Amino acid sequence: MAVSMLDTNCELDKLTSEIFSILENKFLFGEFDHDPQFSLTKQHVFPLEQLKSGKHITGKVRILSIDGGGATDGVLSGKSLVHLESNLQQKSGDPNARIANFFDVVAGSGAGGVLAALLFTAGKDGRPIFTAKEALDFIVENRRKIFKSPAAGGFRRFFRSPENVFGKKFGELTLKDTMKAVLIPCYDLTSGAPFVFSRADAFETDGYDFMIKDVCAATSAGRVAIDMKSVDKKTKIMAIGGEIAMNNPTSAAITHVLNNKQEFPFCNGVEDLLVVSLGNGEACSGVAGKLSSLPTAFVKIAGEGVSDMVDQAVSMAFGESRSSDYVRIQANNGVGSFRGDEKKNVLESIDQMLRQKSVESVLFKGKKLVDRTSLEKLESVSGELIKEHERRKTSILPTVVLKHVSGGSPRTSSATSSSTLSSN
C-alpha cells in the first residue's frame, strides 16, 4: 500500500510541475490575465488518470502531411485541400476559416512542401497569404515551371533563382513567418543526407532560418541541385528535391511531435494524434515495358515504394483508431494517366479521382479499395477537426506551445527579432 501511495505521489508531483510550468509561461508572457480558461475553480479538478492520459484535457495534436508531386504534380492534394477547407468553413460557420486554423503541424515534400508554404505562411495581417483555392490555382498554373526536371539522367547543378515563381509570392518572408510547426524536406548533396527545413529550428538555432522562396525552390527542385544559404549565411546546402529525400513525410511529422516536448508537452503516443495524409497519385503505374523510361521510372518507383511503406507502417501504428485518427487520401490506380495542360481538363481529371473509391495500403499485402470515396473521407475528417477546434475553446492546458515573433504580427524582413511563447 505504501509503495502504491508513493508512486501516486510521484506522478502527482511530476504532473503538478508540468502544469505549473505551462501556467508560469503564460503568466510571464502576459497571456494569463483575463483568460477565462485559466480560472481555476472546482470545475477544473480532474481525476489523476484523466490528467495522465491527457485525452480529456489536452486533446489531439493535428498533423497535415502532403506527399511529393507524384502523377499529378501536387494537383490531387491541392484539390483535396480545397474540399477540406470548404467543409471546415461550412461546419464551423466561418467563411473565412483556413486550413492553417485547424492544424498544429504541417509537413510537405516537393509539391506538398510548396502547398504547405502557401497555406501556412502569414502575411502582414497575420493570416495565411493563400486560401486553399488560391494555392491550387498557383500549382495548376505553374506546375510545368516548378516541377520540370532535366531530360537526361543524373543531376544538374546550378543556382535556380526562385524570384520568378516564388519570389513574387513570398518576398522576404522566412520560416519564422509561418503560423504553425512546419517541416519541409529536401536532400542535401553536401552532407549526403536528408535536410528538413523546420520552423522550430529556425527559432531555436542560429543558421537554420531560410527564406520561404528558397525553401520552396529546394523541395521542388527534383534532380536539379540548388546552392542555397540560410538568412544569416551560416548554413549552406546543395539541395535536390524533397520527393527524393522523403516523398511521404508523415512519419517525420509524427516523430517530430512525439520527440518535441517543448512544443507538444502532453503528446505521448499516436493515441494523442489526428493525422491527415494527402497523396498525389502514383506516377509509376503502367511503366513496365517502357525501357526508354526505366531510369526515371526506377526513381519514381523507389520514392513511391517508400511512400507506401510509410503509409502502411503509420496505418498499423494507429491500429483500430486508424479509421478516425489517421486518414490517407490517395488516387485509385485504375484512374488512368493524368494528362492535359488546360486548367479545366486538369481539374476535371482530379475531381474524377476524388469521387472514386479510395485506396489504402495493407501492411505487406499491397493495397485495397475501401467503400468510402476520398471526398467522403475528407468530409468525415473535417468533422473530427471541428470537434478538436471547439474542445480547445474550453481547455485549461494548451495542446501546443509554439514560439511566435513578438509584436502581434509576422516579420516582413529577415531582420533578427525576439520571440514570445503562445499556446494553441
Automatic annotation (TrEMBL):
The keyword Chaperone does not apply. GO terms for molecular function: hydrolase activity. GO terms for biological process: lipid catabolic process. Its EC number is 3.1.1.-. Residues 403-424 are annotated as: Disordered. Residues 406-424 have a biased composition (Low complexity). It is an enzyme of class 3 (hydrolase). The nitrogen atoms of the two glycine residues in the GGXR motif define the oxyanion hole, and stabilize the oxyanion that forms during the nucleophilic attack by the catalytic serine during substrate cleavage. This is Patatin. It comes from Heracleum sosnowskyi.
